[in-house]
C-alpha cells in the first residue's frame, strides 16, 4: 500500500497568495515569486522545492 502524500501544485504561484507575510512551513522563509505546493487535505503552503524534498525523505512521519 502506497502511503505517499498527494501534492497539490496546479501551477500555484506565491504571488497568488492572499497575505504578503506567508512563509513556507518547512524552511520558514517568506515566499517570493516562486511555485508553491500543499498536501491534500492540508491548508499549509510550502515552497515547491521544500515539499518535494520532504515527500522524498520524511513523508512517512
From TrEMBL:
InterPro entries: PHRF1/Atg35, Znf-RING_euk, Znf_RING, Znf_RING/FYVE/PHD, Znf_RING_CS. Keywords: Metal-binding, Zinc, Zinc-finger. The keyword Lipid metabolism does not apply. Residues 24-57 form the RING-type domain. This is RING-type domain-containing protein. Transmembrane segments: none annotated. It comes from the Eukaryota. It comes from Oreochromis niloticus. Gene3D superfamilies: Zinc/RING finger domain, C3HC4 (zinc finger). GO terms for molecular function: zinc ion binding.
Amino acid at each position: 500500500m502506497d502511503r505517499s502524500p498527494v501534492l497539490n501544485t496546479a501551477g500555484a504561484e506565491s504571488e497568488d497568495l492572499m497575505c504578503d507575510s506567508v512563509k513556507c512551513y518547512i524552511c520558514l522563509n517568506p515566499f517570493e515569486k516562486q511555485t508553491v505546493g500543499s498536501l491534500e487535505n492540508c491548508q499549509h503552503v510550502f515552497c515547491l522545492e521544500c515539499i518535494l524534498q520532504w515527500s522524498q525523505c520524511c513523508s512517512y512521519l
